[in-house]
């Protein structure tokens, strides 16, 4: 990438996601109210486009190799209120209103454990 | 991955990061006080180990292909207070106390813009 392109990406007003070799950027869903991180996954150009069109968070499932509307089976959609973009435009933060638990385990957030010593303990809510 | 291994990873107390084919997990630094997202990058096993040993956020620089201590040139280290782990252990959230701007542009956070229509606008602080 040229310096001019990098500068435009960092300082400009054009949305120009920088997809990696797999065609992905990182997508992070954060509860717009509590600011808790709910989940992290990857988005390809299709997922970004569908998210913007519908206002519902879409990802690209690497394991299933296809577009994934979060909540498509559970009904626990994430309604996107804002999308923040980082300096080099390879990560997106979606501020969302969750319609149910964000994690497939039933937890409110996928981040329900934290490191303590060598192991994991539950995060206090 | 077997179902048993997946279940252990999701429900257990063992820290067993699930590195991808490139040997990476996603690392997200969040301001422990304001809960604002500061930056997102990737971590390999070495970066995870050094972060745990030193209490300072380390990443793996994909562009430079090496370990990267955040702040190694700027002095703007991220002091890690807690590390949250997600359900399938392929993403880590570090709750940090930043010692200066987190972004190389000088911004407090790398997420200083948001989508508005087809373009980007500054995030109001």
Automatic annotation (TrEMBL), chains A, B:
Keyword Cytoplasm set for record: yes
Compartment(s) where it occurs, according to its Swiss-Prot or TrEMBL record: Cytoplasm
Cofactors that this protein relies on: Zn(2+); Mg(2+)
Molecular function terms, GO-annotated: phosphoribosyl-AMP cyclohydrolase activity
Chain positions recorded as Zn(2+) binding sites: 87, 103, 110
UniProt keyword terms in alphabetical order: Amino-acid biosynthesis, Cytoplasm, Histidine biosynthesis, Hydrolase, Magnesium, Metal-binding, Zinc
Binding site for Mg(2+): 86, 88, 90
Listed EC numbers: 3.5.4.19
The keyword Cytoplasm is annotated on this UniProt entry: yes
Residue intervals of the Phosphoribosyl-AMP cyclohydrolase domain: 39-112
Catalyzed reaction equations: 1-(5-phospho-beta-D-ribosyl)-5'-AMP + H2O = 1-(5-phospho-beta-D-ribosyl)-5-[(5-phospho-beta-D-ribosylamino)methylideneamino]imidazole-4-carboxamide
Pathway: Amino-acid biosynthesis; L-histidine biosynthesis; L-histidine from 5-phospho-alpha-D-ribose 1-diphosphate: step 3/9
Co-factor: note: Binds 1 zinc ion per subunit.
Family statement: Belongs to the PRA-CH family.
Subunit structure as annotated in this protein's UniProt entry: Homodimer.
Matching NCBIfam families: PRK00051.1
Task performed by this protein: Catalyzes the hydrolysis of the adenine ring of phosphoribosyl-AMP.
Protein name per Swiss-Prot or TrEMBL: Phosphoribosyl-AMP cyclohydrolase
């Amino acid at each position: 990438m040229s310096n001019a392109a990098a500068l435009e990406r960092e300082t400009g007003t054009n949305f120009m996601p920088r997809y990696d070799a797999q065609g992905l950027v990182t997508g992070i869903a954060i509860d717009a109210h509590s600011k808790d991180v709910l989940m992290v996954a990857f988005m390809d150009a299709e997922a970004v486009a569908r998210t913007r069109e519908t206002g519902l968070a879409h990802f690209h499932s690497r394991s299933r190799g296809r577009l994934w509307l979060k909540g498509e089976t559970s009904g626990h959609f994430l309604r996107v209120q804002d999308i923040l973009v980082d300096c080099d435009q390879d990560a997106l933060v979606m501020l969302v209103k969750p319609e149910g638990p964000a994690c497939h385990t039933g937890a409110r957030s996928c981040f329900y454990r934290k490191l303590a010593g060598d192991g994991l303990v539950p995060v206090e809510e």
